[in-house]
Design brief:
Layout (H helix, E strand, L loop, with lengths): L1 H16 L9 E7 L4 H14 L15 E6 L10 H10 L21 H7 L3 E6 L6 H4 L11 H11 L3 E3 L19 H7 L2 E5 L1 H7 L5 E5 L2 H6 L17 H12 L7 E7 L1 H7 L3 H24 L4 E6 L3 E2 L2 E3 L18 H14 L6 H12 L9 H16 L6 E2 L4 E2 L1 H14 L1 E3 L4 E2 L3 E7 L9 E2 L2 H10 L5
Parallel strand pairs: 1-7, 1-8, 2-16, 3-4, 3-7, 4-6, 5-6
Antiparallel strand pairs: 2-15, 8-15, 9-14, 10-13, 11-12
Helix pairs in contact: 2-12, 3-17, 10-12, 11-12, 13-14, 13-16, 15-16
Length: 476
């Protein structure tokens, strides 16, 4: 009996030692939360926990994935990266100089992304974002340019890459503003020549996608007239606005038109970064939750193809030096539920009031707007000093008409909007060390085919390499 038991153990050991052929990922989702550091994720979960009346976290979906680690983000030339260099590292596995898209540190040698590797293997490819499609992170997957600000040239690179599906708010420079002759061909006109159909909004996508060979999904023209640089923040969204979940759902639908082929899909939650540049905690939490909703769309696909699907979540860098706790050994994040609009959204409200009352806006009118959009004096009690700060800011910018807009990386806002945001952050007991990026670790989460590769501390350059290993892509 003992010999039989030993023989059985040996058999099991041999089986365990035998090489196992893991299935390669046929479907790859690569989510990048721009600016989404560890505290942006942890803060979102703590905020959700407080809304449920507890101290602790209420997990979002992607933090529950079985593999979780962290990644470093420094660029080839800077301890603190920008989105261009970080995007290039996450796309190609190559470090480069800040400001550089899809080129090596010498700014001359092209480097190619995991999206190109996927295309070369016969996969269908989608590149998507909640900001403009020519912004740094999405551009790093298809473009090659020494200057991230060369939006028109980057837009041309989009067509040259020839991927199957693109989505974002719009092109930011479709007519080439740098060309003073006005002779440059419109990026919109190029679409048909290059075999692309442009759809405006989710319903338009549904109408046009069936016959399209390749497609670009943008928000409606009306929405782009207001702001072509991004789709609206989740906290400011109207029911007809394009969402990151709409984009993800459309991409999956389009990329699976040929069921024989696999696909690679990059999805960027681009406005987490924008909210953090503005030091707007409530808006940032809503953006993290909004990206999580898009991940949920991908997870529903994964649940149908668990042995063939890989989902990877990470960030290009942390933004704002976000701090959870400002010295009192407690948090009051639930107060942020009273903030109903972003800092930019409240700026638009104040601007509308100026127009409505021909610049003669009373303190009582402004106070009502603050009550409605921040809960001040009703659900959120202010100290005398905080109320004075708001009133002094009103006096200066409304009565004295000394309107000096507060500038962050992607916004210029009313002083009173900035002051209201700072006060509710103070009450929530959160802080910010800057309006720029930091070198903090960013999280990495993974589930599915090859997800076990994402363990131990990583560098951002490791991530596309591991995706390639999981899917069997040849690296260039």
């Amino acid at each position: 009996m003992q010999k039989l038991f030993i023989s059985l153990l040996l058999f099991i050991a041999i089986l365990s030692a035998a090489p196992v052929s893991a299935q390669q990922a046929k479907y790859v989702f690569y989510f990048i939360g721009d600016g989404m550091g560890v505290n942006q994720v942890q803060g979102t979960e703590l905020y959700r926990g407080e809304l449920e009346g507890k101290i602790g976290i209420s997990p979002i979906l992607f933090t529950q994935f079985p593999y979780a680690t962290t990644s470093t983000t420094f660029s080839a030339t800077n301890g603190v990266t920008d989105s261009a260099a970080a995007g290039t590292a996450l796309a190609s596995g190559k470090k480069t100089k800040n400001g550089t898209i899809g080129k090596a540190e010498d700014q001359a040698t092209d480097v190619y992304s995991v999206a190109t590797w996927a295309k070369n293997k016969g996969y269908r490819v989608g590149i998507t974002t909640s900001v403009s499609i020519d912004h740094a992170t999405p551009a790093a997957f298809y473009a090659h340019n020494a200057e991230r600000s060369s939006s028109y040239e980057i837009g041309k690179n989009l067509y040259e890459a020839g991927f199957d599906f693109y989505a974002g708010s719009d092109f930011v420079d479709p007519y080439n503003k740098k060309d003073k002759s006005g002779q440059s061909e419109s990026l919109y006109d190029m679409a048909a020549q290059k075999g692309y159909v442009i759809a405006r909004g989710y319903k338009d996508y549904q109408k046009k996608s069936k016959k399209a060979e390749k497609i670009i999904l943008f928000q409606s023209e009306k929405a782009s007239e207001k702001d072509n640089s991004s789709i609206p923040y989740a906290i400011d969204r109207d029911k007809n606005d394009l969402t990151l979940s709409d984009i993800t759902r459309s991409a999956i639908h389009f990329l699976t038109k040929d069921s024989e082929k696999g696909f690679f899909l990059m999805v960027e939650g681009g406005k987490i970064d924008w909210a953090c540049h503005s030091n707007d905690a409530a808006t940032a939490f809503h953006e993290v939750m909004d990206m999580d909703a898009a991940v949920r769309v991908a997870y529903e696909f994964y649940a149908q193809h668990p042995d063939e699907t890989l989902i990877v979540i990470t960030a290009d860098h942390e933004t704002g030096g976000f701090v959870l706790g400002t010295g009192a050994y407690k948090l009051n994040l639930q107060v942020l539920k009273n903030q109903k609009v972003s800092e930019g959204g409240f700026t638009r409200i104040l601007s509308d009031l100026r127009k409505k009352y021909n610049q003669e806006v009373s303190w009582e009118t402004v106070k009502q707007a603050l009550k409605k959009n921040f809960g001040f004096w009703e659900n959120v009690q202010l100290t005398e000093a905080q109320e004075k700060r708001l009133y002094d800011c009103y006096e200066k910018s409304f009565n004295q008409q000394n309107i000096k807009l507060e500038k962050s990386e992607y916004a210029q806002d009313e002083p009173l909007a900035g002051e209201a945001k700072r006060i509710i952050n103070e009450i929530a007991l959160v802080g910010w060390t800057s309006g720029g990026h930091s070198a903090g670790y960013v999280p990495v989460f993974a589930i599915g085919a090859g997800a076990e590769k994402f363990q131990g501390r990583l560098d951002n350059t490791d991530i596309p390499e591991k995706i390639a290993e999981a899917a069997g892509f040849d690296r260039e």
